[in-house]
Amino acid sequence: MFNKDDIKGVIFDLDGVICSTDELHYLAWKELADSIGVYFDRQINSRLRGVSRMASLDIILERSEKKYSQEEKEALAAEKNEAYRKLLERMSPSDVSDEVRSTLTALRGKGLRLSIGSSSKNTPLILERTDARRYFDAVSDGNNITRSKPDPEVFLKAAEFIGLAPSVCLVVEDAEAGIDAGISGGFFTAAIGSAVHCGKANVNLNRFSDLLKYV
């Protein structure tokens, strides 16, 4: 049973929750797909939400007539990431809204421990470009995990980093795979954006600041 008085920490997915790099991911994947002659559109791109880089590449290559070796796949994934990182250089503090910043400040004011739980290996760069690292006590990301969501590893490590049990942490996610990861890890979950429609979370947020009603 969810009780806000039990919550001592909040773990946030990064992309789609704190800020959005969806369009940058799309542009980078589109550039790669075009370069190898594979059809790719926004509908296919929607399947990549909350999915690791290599798993995303496998989805894109479903339409490829060529069979790629693991070594070739890793080269393609690296090519996409290089294009994506160049696009990330466009990000700035304005990519994190005033609403998100004021809510994070209020949560810290309540004494809650805050962490990022993102599968992205680019998390440190994004936090640096947006000047958002200062709001979080810890960061768990693709650089310290071996399994992507819906495996709960990234959230379990995030909880460990802030010294709390999953049972007293709320995971905030915009992807169903992330909600599934939170549930399987023993966390309470809050859905925002498209994750609301899966109907699995303990609470649903219409906007980021709604968090203040639940913790």
Structure description:
The chain is of the alpha/beta class and 215 residues long. Helices cover 39% and strands 12% of the residues. The chain is built from 8 helices and 6 strands; from the N terminus they run βαααααβαβαβαββ. It has helices at residues 22-35, 42-46, 53-60, 70-88, 98-109, 123-130, 153-161, 176-184, and strands at residues 9-12, 113-117, 138-140, 169-173, 188-192, 203-205. α1 packs across α4 (70-88) and α3 (53-60) crosses α4 (70-88).
Summary, kept brief:
The chain has 215 residues and is an alpha/beta fold. Helices cover 39% and strands 12% of the residues. The protein contains eight helices and six strands; from the N terminus they run βαααααβαβαβαββ.
C-alpha end-to-end distance = 14 Å
Low-confidence spans: none
| Count, helices | 8
Count the beta strands: 6
Radius of gyration: 17 Å
| Mean pLDDT rating | 95
Strand content: 5-15%
- Based on secondary structure, the structural category is alpha/beta
Annotation keywords:
215 residues; 6-stranded parallel β-sheet; 6 strands
Helix-strand blueprint:
Elements lengths: L8 E4 L9 H14 L6 H5 L6 H8 L9 H19 L9 H12 L3 E5 L5 H8 L7 E3 L12 H9 L7 E5 L2 H9 L3 E5 L10 E3 L10
Parallel strand pairs: 1-2, 1-4, 2-3, 4-5, 5-6
